From TrEMBL:
Coiled coil: none annotated. The chain crosses the membrane at residues 31-52, 72-91, 97-120, 132-152, 158-177, 198-217, 229-249, 261-283, 289-308. This is Membrane protein. It comes from the Bacteria. InterPro entries: EmrE. Keywords: Membrane, Transmembrane, Transmembrane helix.
Length: 324
């Protein structure tokens, strides 16, 4: 239950990203600075946390030993995740991006065959390729149905350009984020805590943000004061708080693809938080009856998903006790 609660809390702080990114775009800010400034601001906050916990030495030694892997998976998990999200804000409202982002519920489950699970056998340690958790995926599809219901009314009014440039980048990001996160968990193998891992991935992704900033200076100029402040808020709420909570949740259930899928399914709550935020802060239109029904379907899907994961865990523990 704890990983699910952490996942919901992370969804709340993540939703601030969609609201403020759209706000920055509407006020004339460039998506380039919305993306890069977040990670520049994250570094000092995370450095302070890790240094206070006296864990910096182990982190930098691990990064030095696996330098190439850190750069690769951090660039995918953070760079290929957040840059497309910010780019999409140019063409789509926050509610659509938040809704489209929930495809990560499916994307995360489909990535399972790319990973291996280590088990002990009579012939020694053996690695087995993980399988797609179809039972959990069924509940994820229910959540996705609710999301589709929420956006179908407005989506029919969008142009082809908005669909291509506002949704496709989000779909790319939905695969990049869980892939980078899981590969880094696999690489760290419990040797680093969540704060170390987030800091390491942020630092390792800096080459992308530096390059993007150089491009931004040449094409867009420097960011405005308003965009800088809003990017700082996003960095703290989404980049530090939400990312840390989400990584902590996934760390608690690593190795169990069904539970991992349940944690990733909690990110569907971002839609509800984003809708509320846009109504309160950006004066967005109140959702229709169909949208409210969609929200209810999402909640039911989350409850069922969590229930199945918890039921499997209890059954496993009971079986283990009997064997003893």
């Amino acid at each position: 239950m704890r990983p699910v609660v952490l996942g919901i809390l992370s969804a709340f702080f993540f939703s601030i990203t969609f609201i403020l990114n759209r706000s920055m775009e509407l006020s004339g800010g460039s998506w380039i600075w919305s993306a890069s400034l977040r990670y520049f601001f994250m570094v000092p906050f995370l450095l302070i946390i890790v240094f206070l916990r006296k864990n910096s030495k182990d982190l930098f030694e691990h990064m030095k030993k696996h330098f190439g892997s850190w750069i690769l998976w951090s660039s995918i998990g953070f760079g290929l995740f957040y840059a497309p999200i910010c780019f999409a804000a140019v063409y789509s409202p926050g509610w659509l991006i938040a809704s489209s982002w929930q495809i990560t519920i499916i994307s995360g489950s489909l990535l399972a065959p790319l990973f291996f699970m280590t088990i002990n056998t009579p012939n020694g340690i053996k690695k087995i390729r993980m399988k797609i958790p179809f039972k959990g995926l069924g509940m994820s599809l229910l959540i996705l149905l609710g999301i589709v219901m929420m956006q179908v009314e407005l989506a029919t009014k969008l142009s082809i350009k908005t669909v291509l440039f506002g949704i496709v980048p989000v779909i790319i990001a939905s695969f990049a984020y869980p892939l980078g996160n899981r590969k880094m968990m696999e690489l760290c193998n419990g040797k680093l805590d969540v704060y170390q891992r987030v800091l390491g991935m942020t630092i390792a992704s800096l080459p992308i943000w530096i390059g993007l900033s150089v491009y931004g200076i040449g094409t867009e100029g420097l960011p405005s004061r308003e965009q800088t402040i809003q990017s700082l808020i996003v960095a703290v709420s989404s980049g530090v708080i939400a990312t840390t909570l989400f990584f902590q949740a996934t760390e608690l259930v690593k190795g169990d693809m069904q539970k991992l899928g349940a944690v990733e399914a909690t990110q569907s709550m971002e839609v509800l938080f984003a809708v509320a935020g846009e109504i309160l802060l950006l004066s967005a239109q109140i959702p229709s009856i169909i949208s409210w029904v969609g929200m209810l379907v999402i909640m039911v899907g989350m409850i069922l998903h969590s229930y199945l994961s918890q039921k499997k865990h209890v059954a496993h523990r009971s079986k283990k006790t009997v064997n003893l």
